Amino acid sequence: MAPRNEERRREILASTYSLLDEASYDRVSLNDIARGAGIKKSLLQRYFPQKIDIIKEMLTTLLDVSYNYMGTLAQDEEPEKDLFQRISNFNMLFFAAVAEDYRMYQFILATVASPDILDVWIDTICNWLRRYIQSRQFNMLDLRCALCFAMGGSMHLFQHQEELGIDYTFFCEKHIRAILEFLNYSAEEIDAICNETEEWIERTDVGSFLEYCRNEIDWIEERDEKIPASF
Question: Domain span at residue 106?
Answer without folding.
Answer: 51-216
